[in-house]
Write a structure and sequence with these properties.
mainly beta; about 0% helix
C-alpha cells in the first residue's frame, strides 16, 4: 500500500530534530514495555510517505530523499537505506527487491507526465516504464502481500473518470481497468491486491469499498455497511476470501470478497464500542491469516484480533500520535507499529 502523504515538517514540527538524526537507534525497554523500540526520525523534516512491504515496512525521507526499509529478521527489524534517484513518489515495494514507483521524467519538463517505473533496487536498473495516458496522473499504488502484483489508481478530472492498473510482476504486464461510475478520486485512500492477483480492493470509494474483478475488468461490488461512516483502509486475508476494511469510529469489518456481505465486525476501541473522533489509520493481516491488526488515531493504539477465537482484541499502546503502519513478522509471531519517528515491536505470544 502507498502511505498517505503528509508533510510532517508542518504537522509535527520535527524538522529540527530530524536533521540531527542520520540513522535509526535501537534499545531494549524494561519490563511491561514493547519487545524492542527503534528511534528513527526522517531526515530533513520527516517522512513524506510510508507503507507496508512483503517483509516489513518503508518510509521515504524528505531531504535528502531516501527510501528507508525495515525488514523483518526473526523477531527484529533491520534498517536498509537507499538513495532515491530523482524525484519519485507513490512507492509499491514488490518481491525480489523490485519497486514500482511514480517518477519525474529525466530531464524534467512541462510536457511529459510522471512515469511509472519498475526498478530493481539492488542494481538501480530500470526494468520497464509505463507512461500514463495523456491528462491522467497517478493517485495511489498498492501491492499484494506476496509482492507478485501491484495496483495503481489514475485520476483524470475529479468527479469524472477513474482507472485502475494491475501489474503482474513476473510477466511485466500492466492491465488498465476503467471504473464505470462517476466518483471523486481524492477520497480514495488505499489500494489492496489479493495474493492471487484476481481482485483489487479500492478503500474509500464513495466512503466505502469497491471490489474489482481483474480478469473480468468489472466492479464486482461497491458497498459500505449501513452502520459505517467510512471505510478507507483495506487488507486482504491470505486466502483472498475476506477483505478487511476500517475507517471512522474505530470500526473494522470483514467482508466477503465475492459478495461484499459482512462476515465480522469489530471495534478498535478500549470500550469495545464506537467512539466519535476515533479512527482506523492502517490495517494488516498476518501471513498465516490468524491475526488482524488495526492501527488507530489519534491515540496511537494498535488492536489485534485472533480470528480463530471470540475473545476481545489485545491492545498495544504505541502512543504519541496516529499510527502510520502496522506490520506482522513472516512467522506471524510479532507485530511492529510505526508512528512519530518510533518503531515498536510486540510479542503476540507473550
Amino acid at each position: 500500500m502507498t502511505g498517505y502523504r503528509v508533510w510532517l515538517v508542518c504537522l509535527l514540527h520535527l524538522g529540527a530534530i530530524a536533521a540531527l538524526c542520520v540513522s535509526c537507534e535501537r534499545h531494549a525497554p524494561g519490563d511491561g514495555q514493547p519487545r524492542e523500540v527503534t528511534k528513527c526520525f526522517g531526515e530533513g523534516g520527516g517522512y513524506t510517505e510510508w507503507g507496508q512491504t512483503r517483509n516489513g515496512m518503508y518510509g521515504v525521507t524528505l531531504e535528502p530523499e531516501i527510501l528507508r526499509t525495515w525488514r523483518w529478521e526473526n523477531a527484529s527489524l533491520r534498517t536498509v537505506d537507499q538513495q532515491v534517484p530523482g524525484k519519485c513518489m507513490d512507492y509499491a515495494l514488490l518481491a525480489d527487491d523490485l519497486c514500482l514507483v511514480n517518477c519525474d521524467p529525466d530531464p524534467p519538463n512541462d510536457y511529459n507526465p510522471w512515469t511509472l517505473v519498475l526498478r530493481d533496487m539492488r542494481t538501480d536498473a530500470i526494468l520497464q516504464q509505463w507512461p500514463p495516458p495523456e491528462d491522467w496522473s497517478v493517485d495511489n499504488t498498492g501491492a499484494s502481500q506476496s509482492g507478485q502484483f501491484a495496483a495503481i489508481s489514475l485520476g483524470e478530472v475529479p468527479g469524472e473518470d477513474y482507472k485502475i492498473g494491475v501489474l503482474n510482476v513476473s510477466r511485466r504486464e500492466m492491465r488498465w481497468i476503467q471504473m464505470p461510475d462517476v466518483h471523486s478520486y481524492y477520497s480514495v485512500r488505499q489500494l489492496a491486491v489479493s495474493d492471487d492477483g484476481a481482485h483489487v480492493a479500492v478503500g474509500g470509494w464513495n466512503n466505502g469499498v469497491a471490489m474489482i474483478d481483474v480478469s473480468g475488468e468489472t466492479v464486482r461490488w461497491a458497498k459500505r455497511p449501513q452502520s459505517a461512516i467510512s471505510m478507507v483502509y483495506v487488507a486482504f486475508a491470505p486466502d483472498a476470501r475476506t477483505i478487511y476494511a476500517g475507517g471512522g469510529e474505530g470500526r473494522v469489518y470483514g467482508l466477503d470478497v465475492q459478495t461484499g456481505d459482512v462476515k465480522s465486525r469489530w471495534f478498535a476501541t478500549k470500550s469495545g464500542n464506537r467512539v466519535y473522533g476515533h479512527r482506523i489509520s492502517c490495517l494488516a493481516v498476518s501471513p498465516d491469516g490468524r491475526y488482524v491488526a488495526a492501527g488507530t488515531g489519534p491515540e496511537g493504539q494498535a488492536f489485534v484480533w485472533d480470528t480463530t477465537a471470540d475473545d476481545r482484541p489485545r491492545m498495544f499502546n504505541h502512543g504519541m500520535t496516529t499510527l502510520w503502519v502496522v506490520s506482522f513478522s513472516p512467522d506471524s509471531r510479532y507485530l511492529a507499529t510505526f508512528a512519530g519517528g518510533w518503531i515498536k515491536t510486540w510479542d503476540l505470544e507473550r
